Amino acid sequence: MRYLDEEAIEDIAVGAAFLGTGGGGDPYIGKMMALSAIKKYGPVQLLTTEEIEEDDFFIPAAMMGAPSVLIEKFPKGDEFTRVFQKLGRYLGREVKGTFPMEAGGVNSMIPIVVAAQLGLPLIDCDGMGRAFPELQMVTFHLHGISSTPMAITDEKGNIGIMETISNKWTERLARVSTVEMGASSLVSIYPCTGGQLKTASVKNIVSLSEKIGRIIRSNQQDAEVKLNDLLEATDGFHLFDGKIVDVERGTAGGFNRGCVTIAGLNAYADSEVKVFFQNENLIALKDGLPIALTPDLICLVDLETLNPVTTEGLKYGKRVRVLALPCNSKWRTEKGIETVGPRYFGYDYSYTPVEELVRKAGVTHV
Amino acid sequence: MRYLDEEAIEDIAVGAAFLGTGGGGDPYIGKMMALSAIKKYGPVQLLTTEEIEEDDFFIPAAMMGAPSVLIEKFPKGDEFTRVFQKLGRYLGREVKGTFPMEAGGVNSMIPIVVAAQLGLPLIDCDGMGRAFPELQMVTFHLHGISSTPMAITDEKGNIGIMETISNKWTERLARVSTVEMGASSLVSIYPCTGGQLKTASVKNIVSLSEKIGRIIRSNQQDAEVKLNDLLEATDGFHLFDGKIVDVERGTAGGFNRGCVTIAGLNAYADSEVKVFFQNENLIALKDGLPIALTPDLICLVDLETLNPVTTEGLKYGKRVRVLALPCNSKWRTEKGIETVGPRYFGYDYSYTPVEELVRKAGVTHV
């Protein structure tokens, strides 16, 4: 057990945005929300999944929808606790803590806001170990846990409770509500016992985010040393450096969808990488061939600072590095690949772990 | 207080379909559901709004969406009580009875099914005195009553509870869920006290439906005598006789929308009537000029039998009469016209009561 202070929150926001693979929201907005919450309510307790009781009850809180919309619809702050408390009351159980659904600049911070406001601990785990665009794309789903009862709200004050026949139906019904609510909403979903968190979550993701954020935010001036530290901390691979030369995007069905084209720089000068995204980066092709495939993490970072670049921050001329991280092993199962593999998203590639793609291509670690 | 037997149900289904002005569902499907419910559970008590307690609590049950879909998705029967009981439990109040939201072949029958299954009385009132396509189009809305908490379900078993900031938001959010659920859903909405039913409902609509149905189903062989009886019972007007020569329709946004063109017969041979509908008939134009306008009731019936013709039953070659009835006076207020008048639906006509239009045109009662 420990407390998260301002420094920890700054680190977590940046590290979680890195693990958010382009999605999960802007870390600046996220950290401002969390910092103002702990300033007002005091620091937040962080518990590991080993420190919680088997039968205790936990609920996450998260934003759903197109992250780009959040910039225009800055949350008032009470919608997170409203949706969280609504679900708690509906379930009629005392809630002993909260946790993030996914890594991301905003979605790592919302549970900190809720924890601070309600004086609850934050549990060091999430349901993805990264970010994904749809509600059934969580390790809880792979473990057969129901996404409902869930609660959904908007910044205007509309609120709903849903109980569905499948997690895919939760996604369908929550998605149309989210779109109607203005392309973003707040949800509390996948209520879990301590026992379920111990077996079905991705553990220590808050600490890992913090570790990553600390490296990225460090004063280390040598970009290559910093990169090395980052890759070592994440078992990551450095795939490409380049300059963004094209960004196609649109907001369709409540998602940010698109493709970014990166022209190689330095050692990569003769090549081009395309990264396709749906809120999150899903597929990276180098000169037409896959170099990283969902569910492995494809992370775009600033060439110099290594600051994570979210999909809404992609801009012509920006110089970026393309990194890739192996996903949590839960995703590399048959049900995992069926749920979040390339074909689910409509890309005709068989999933191949990034380690194998790297070995085949002879890419080195740095 | 009295009990509704099979004969009463047959009459109510047909009479309510007439008052449904094209919408509210097919009376054959409706009556089959209700008849099988009272066969299994016994007859249903009908109470007037004078016979209920001020502080008692009542919830309606209704179908939402495109009526044409119901024909393909015949309800299993348990979805009506599921949504009704869900809302009752959520509100934590003992429910003392149910009532229809609107007149219609199906929507007059669903509360009878619920009443029979749960041993509750049916209250002789509704929220429209006719049918309308959107959730805020009820007299409860005109009286400032909230549509939520509401419950919504589908035949698959998905279920939701909503609390919204306005009845228009209820319509928006329930509509997108209904479309996603397959263009139809079951809702329990506008929970009311006895006091609210006494002041804000349209009263005696079940009895009126029964009276209308009895006339239409009678053995009277003289069509003109039968028509006269019907117009007398409803303060109605006979506007036109003709043959359907064109039906344009589509299912858009979860509604059946379209226009039927009727070429005059007999005394009307030189004229043409067009009726525009969105689930319900909204506007009738004779040779381009309005002869009846929403919220007044525009009812199409079979030329011989006077059986109501629903929008999904409109067919080329069918011979119909066009009748019109003055709407309940609650609709003829400023808020009423703003909520359901011609301009709300996008028709550039100022509402004029059907009596005035008839007087101006010199149309006689029969």
Automatic annotation (TrEMBL), chains A, B:
<protein>
    <recommendedName>
        <fullName>DUF917 domain-containing protein</fullName>
    </recommendedName>
</protein>
<dbReference type="InterPro" id="IPR027479">
    <property type="entry name" value="S-Me-THD_N_sf"/>
</dbReference>
<dbReference type="InterPro" id="IPR048350">
    <property type="entry name" value="S-Me-THD-like_C"/>
</dbReference>
<dbReference type="Pfam" id="PF06032">
    <property type="entry name" value="S-Me-THD_N"/>
</dbReference>
<dbReference type="InterPro" id="IPR010318">
    <property type="entry name" value="S-Me-THD_N"/>
</dbReference>
<feature type="domain" description="S-Me-THD-like C-terminal">
    <location>
        <begin position="166"/>
        <end position="354"/>
    </location>
</feature>
<dbReference type="InterPro" id="IPR024071">
    <property type="entry name" value="S-Me-THD_C_sf"/>
</dbReference>
<feature type="domain" description="S-Me-THD N-terminal">
    <location>
        <begin position="8"/>
        <end position="163"/>
    </location>
</feature>
<dbReference type="Pfam" id="PF20906">
    <property type="entry name" value="S-Me-THD_C"/>
</dbReference>
